[in-house]
Design brief:
heterodimer, A: about 650 residues, alpha/beta, seven-stranded mixed sheet, two-stranded antiparallel ribbon, B: about 80 residues, mainly beta, SH3 type barrels
């Protein structure tokens, strides 16, 4: 299949174009939405590869190296590249274009944000640029799709051209035929400042001249930026800006918790009814039992959280696509420096609210290796979406769903848990900053994009991909674990007579269901009892122990496991929360999930690293198993100690 | 005159850049090269960052790092 790469500077609308071309026909790897990995999709039978944004081909950070490596591969294979340029920052984009041209790659240039030009009554002389660059140029608005037909024709007819080289004759660095041309050799070397400056200055002068002829925009540039700079006077205000940021974050969590409650209740009720229906209609009996008490409660434990997770991704997506996320970097830089981080760490850290994996990978954008390592090791303490189901269920057990004015009590508790995750992350980053030795301090800069109304297509694709990734990844594990758990919890090494005898001799046999005794003497019951001495000081029994064990690989399995375990131990069909609320401590007769146990569990899940995928990514990003192992042990000890203190105090 | 001495709303031309190769390279990539015209928009003291624009691009640079950038103020 023919392959075409999309290359562009950051904020050139490259991802918008990729979404427009490929729609839902994307393959985004395991973890969607990452800006630091290449993505691919199909358009008109052609594979479109979306590369991370890059300012020039002299790669500096790790994400730029991903793009540089891929571009050099395209240069070798002779496959074409579509260069996406931002119409209002044409100088930067064309500079990159001249570098691509010198690699002798078949190219086409898409000038995006036609709407910005129209808003300012600016006219781009496309013919002039085509003539100077000797390449097909298409003016587009990737938001509305204007220009896509022209691009389709270009791709179908494969009308890419290899432009005339600009400056590669300046260099004589070709190394024994290892590279296809001298400029590729220069890029691969990438350590000579003099050569870099010469290359950059020459190209800058060239493109300044081209832009001056094709788009005389200087007079209108201030007008273009004025709206953004005016808004920034308020949003970047020393006090108003911080208050606004805290208000936005508070609003996000209030919305996530209060609005999502309604569809979550519907889903919970629907799964309870479905389990009941299956239990009454399906035969044979063992299959009905497997489905209604194993598979359905387990899957329901994942599906129920789709509204909350999708809403969180949606709101974070709006912050990103409007340009506000970069402002959070601006206002937080000075504060984060106290913890050895910079404002650029905010995006990886906030991505950690969605999932640690893309967050850790996006730390590649950081120039400082020390900061990158600190972010990689501290980010798993940020509250990821997999923790959300655990928090949601435990918060609902502790706090009533009541409003004080317009503030939802459960939403407030959720906000406090997220804040606790942030504080823990910063303290760990501070500690790591003291431990990791490095004298290199790169110059810090921050790109501030203009404010835009979000491109809803991009936001919704991002929500769809990320939510799908959560459901599929978690769903696969939970499906298998639910079946295994059902077997372990439904079968026993003992005979039914033995269990009947235990039930009849049980001190609470009058109030206890037989199924509860069956569970206690099942394989799962024995497994839970093995670890019970270790977790008892935290307030957990063997049933919670089973959920802890199964969720060591992926924390989101906790709720599904609890749902399955308590479903098996109960004769009644009920919602997940209902089952947990009704669970009694057989010794005291009080609620099993009382405040002390629930708070202890919450704290355990705030701090524990229960995600094998995160450990695998940390290993990949650091090149050593040493870091994920340290990370796992440190977080487990932290989780155990804080949960122990909380339970003993409460 | 240094970039940090520029007042809000004023424009200047970059005349010299000092510092290590890494610093020069980073500034160059972000459009801060000798001869570039920059405009200062905002500089809240609490955040210790200068917010400027050059060729349609807006950029934040830490106040401490602006010591590397020599400028010549342009009359409006």
């Amino acid at each position: 299949m023919q392959k075409i790469a999309l290359v562009g500077t950051p904020n050139s609308g490259k991802s918008s174009l990729f979404n427009l071309l490929t729609g839902l026909n994307q393959e985004v790897g395991n973890y969607s939405g990452s800006t630091v990995e290449k993505k691919s999709g199909i358009f008109e039978g052609v594979q479109i590869v979306d590369l991370p944004g890059i300012k020039n081909l002299f790669a500096n950070s790790l994400d730029e190296k991903v793009s540089q490596t891929e571009i050099l591969k395209f240069a070798t294979s002779g496959e074409p590249i579509i260069m996406v340029a931002n119409a209002m920052q044409l100088e930067r984009s064309l500079l990159l274009f001249t570098q691509l041209a010198d690699l002798q790659i078949p190219l086409a240039l898409v000038v995006n944000f036609k709407d910005d030009l129209e808003r300012l009554n600016l006219k781009l002389d496309v013919d002039k640029i085509e003539q100077r660059l000797k390449t097909k140029v298409i003016l587009m608005n990737s938001k509305s799709g204007e220009g896509v037909d022209e691009l389709r024709t270009l791709i179908q007819q494969n009308k890419f051209e290899v432009p005339t080289a600009f400056y590669r004759s300046l260099y004589e660095a070709e190394k024994n035929g290892q590279f296809i041309n001298s400029y590729q050799a220069v890029l691969a070397a990438n350590d000579n400042l003099e050569q870099f400056e010469k290359d950059y200055t020459n190209r800058q002068q060239l493109v300044d001249g081209i832009v001056a002829e094709a788009l005389p925009k200087q007079a209108k540039e201030s007008a273009f930026l004025k709206q953004t700079t005016s808004i920034d006077k308020y949003l970047l205000h020393p006090f108003g800006g911080i208050l606004f940021f805290l208000f936005v974050m508070f609003l996000v969590f209030q919305t996530v918790f209060s609005v999502a409650t309604y569809p979550m209740d519907w889903i919970d009720g629907a799964f309870a009814s479905l389990s009941s229906f299956v239990s009454n209609t399906v035969s044979p009996e063992w299959l009905a039992d497997l489905l209604s008490n194993g598979v359905l409660p387990g899957i329901g434990g994942v599906v129920i959280f789709i509204p909350q997770i999708a809403l969180l991704f949606f709101l974070l997506g709006i912050l990103e696509h409007t340009g506000y996320l970069a402002r959070i970097s601006f206002i937080s830089d000075n504060f984060l420096q106290k913890f050895g981080l910079s404002g650029n760490s905010v995006i990886p850290l906030m991505s950690g609210w969605a999932c640690s994996i893309p967050a850790i990978m996006s730390a590649r954008t950081l120039d400082s290796e020390k900061e990158r390592l600190a972010v990689i090791l501290a980010t798993p303490l940020m509250t990821c979406s997999a923790r959300l189901p655990v928090y949601a269920i435990l918060v609902a057990l502790i706090f009533p769903n009541e409003y004080y004015g317009w503030i939802n009590l459960q939403g407030l508790a959720m906000f406090a848990l997220y804040l606790l995750g942030v504080i823990a992350t910063l303290l760990v980053a501070w500690g790591l900053n003291k431990i990791i030795k490095s004298t290199f301090r790169p110059l810090w800069t921050l790109d501030l994009p203009v404010y835009r109304f979000p491109n809803w297509r991009n936001v919704l694709y991002s929500v769809y991909n990320k939510t799908k990734s959560f459901v599929v990844e978690a769903g696969k594990v939970i499906f298998v674990i639910s079946i295994v758990l059902w077997f372990l919890a439904s079968f026993s090494p003992h005979s039914s007579e033995f269990i009947q005898e235990k039930y009849e001799n049980h001190p609470q046999s009058e109030t206890l269901d037989l199924s509860a005794v069956e569970l206690e003497y099942s394989y799962a019951g024995y497994l839970g009892k093995v670890i019970e001495p270790v977790i008892k000081p935290l307030g957990y029994d063997w049933k919670i122990g089973i959920a802890l064990l199964t969720s060591f690989a992926a924390r989101e399995v906790f709720v599904g496991t609890l749902s399955t375990i308590y479903s098996i131990g109960s004769e009644e069909e009920d919602t997940i929360i209902g089952r947990l609320k009704n669970e009694k401590n057989p010794i005291t007769g009080n609620a099993r999930f009382n405040v002390a146990t629930s708070v202890s569990l919450l704290l355990f899940y705030v701090f524990a690293l229960q995600c094998m995928s995160t450990m695998a990514v940390v290993r990949k990003e650091t090149g050593s198993w040493k870091y994920p192992i340290y990370q796992f042990v440190f977080m487990l000890v932290l989780a155990y100690v804080t949960a122990l203190i909380a339970y003993q105090i409460l | 005159m240094k970039l940090k001495d520029l007042k809000t709303g004023e424009q200047a031309k970059v005349t010299a850049i000092s510092g290590s190769a890494q610093i020069k390279k980073k500034l160059l990539v972000n459009g801060i090269s000798i001869g570039a015209i920059v405009k200062k928009h905002y500089s809240p003291a609490l955040f210790k960052i200068i917010y400027l624009s050059s060729k349609g691009k807006m950029l934040g640079i830490r106040m401490a790092d602006t010591a590397h950038i020599e400028i010549q103020k342009l009359e409006q």
